[in-house]
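Record format v2
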Amino acid sequence: MRLELGRIKITDVQFADTTKVEKGTLYVNEQELVNMILEDEHIKSVKVDLAKPGEETRITPVKDVIEPRVKVDGQGGIFPGVMNKVTTVGTGRTHVLSGVAVVTCGKIVGFQEGIIDMSGPGAEFTPFSKTLNVCFVIEPIEGLKQHEYEAAARMAGFKAANFIAKAGLDVLPDEVEIYETKPLLESILEYPNLPKVGYVYMLQTQGLLHDTYVYGVDAKKIVPTILYPTEVFDGAILSGNCVSACDKNTTYHHQNNPIIHDLFARHGKDINFVGVIITNENVYLADKERSSDWTAKLCKFLGLDGAIVSQEGFGNPDTDLIMNCKKIENLGIKTVIVTDEYAGRDGASQSLADADAKADAVVTGGNANEVILLPPMKKIIGMLNYTDKIAGGFDGSLRPDGSIEAEIQVITGATNELGFNKMSATSF
Amino acid sequence: MVKEIERAGIPVVHICTVVPISLTVGANRIVPAIAIPHPLGNPALDPVEEKKVRRKLVVKALKALETEVEGQTVFED
């Protein structure tokens, strides 16, 4: 499977009468977007706002972040099974409005949405302080149930992203990257002497608004399976997640999965990147056992020499992570696990809820319990009246001057477990 | 908590969904529970059936409490 990813570099975003891309500037028609989102009868109102790097702006409560992408050539469309027919994606050509992000906001769960600061100390912890953000603050109709609100906000984000992305359909990209994965046997023949490496991609599927979708399927209902890596770039996996902001994978993270990106960069050089195994993080022990058994089985079936395993979320998914690691290692395949830590504010507590001696190669995205003081911002996109309840916040988190003292857990993407951030740790 | 209570000389049964974590933290008597969001019940069942499930778990835990163990033991069905 071969995909050309054409990146159109966007350096500014502005409101205008028509939605278009011109000389690196994205123009969006605010009213058009509002009308489109209000087509959903579950949504009472939506406010569109723009946030740019360096501004004294705080966006919160952030639900999801999405990168606008459009299929230019090849079968299927972005977010197959959800926004487009369920056709297999990952081939042909896709255009990306690089530097732009659609950010959806709403007090869906209240304690499980995030904060994005466009400047100040908090901005250092989130990748979305560097993107040009088209923000949508979505209010539900009265009496709408929480899970219906989540679904409405989720779909509104994808709708907006796909609509905006169409502006890049006929624009010449600034750069085109080519990603290709061959069928397994061909790939092995092509690089017979390189170690075969796979990626075990764990998806948050605890239910109760902790959900991820694959081609429209709720991933808690899948058994582990194999994807071509480029399918992920076309939105095969998307977030329906309301969970601690620091280490949930937003849809943007999935679309830009840095582990896949980096494995591709070394493919054919020092490793043979043969494919992606997706698996879930369910709440029944039998599901955890089955999924980790199958993940290990698929690693062996693919003939892997090594696997990178990434986690999403924390707590009981630590067990899924360790089960995957242990079972894959027991089949003679080397693993590296990618996770983050809840080691207490002083960093002295045990980092993960589960552990095993086989997990001897670990990459961390940082300690989510670290406390940060976020200074007041001039502009708020969304609302602040929930921050005492946010995961990582506490009674008195929001101070009268508008500053927030909280754990970095509250910041969207701060300790991301795909490595889409700056923090980590090294031991010697 | 399991370990601290046992340290005081009182035997403990840990009813727990994620048995591997219970094993990692060092519980000695472990009874597997239903699911993480509802360890001691099952909202998918009707109340009469659910009560049977709940009673079974508690009885099993009490039996485990009376059982002598040599090291960590998981009380499967």
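The longest strand of chain A covers residues 57-66.
Chain A touches chain B at residues 206-208, 283-285, 288, 316, 318-319, 322-323, 353-356 (CB under 8 Å).
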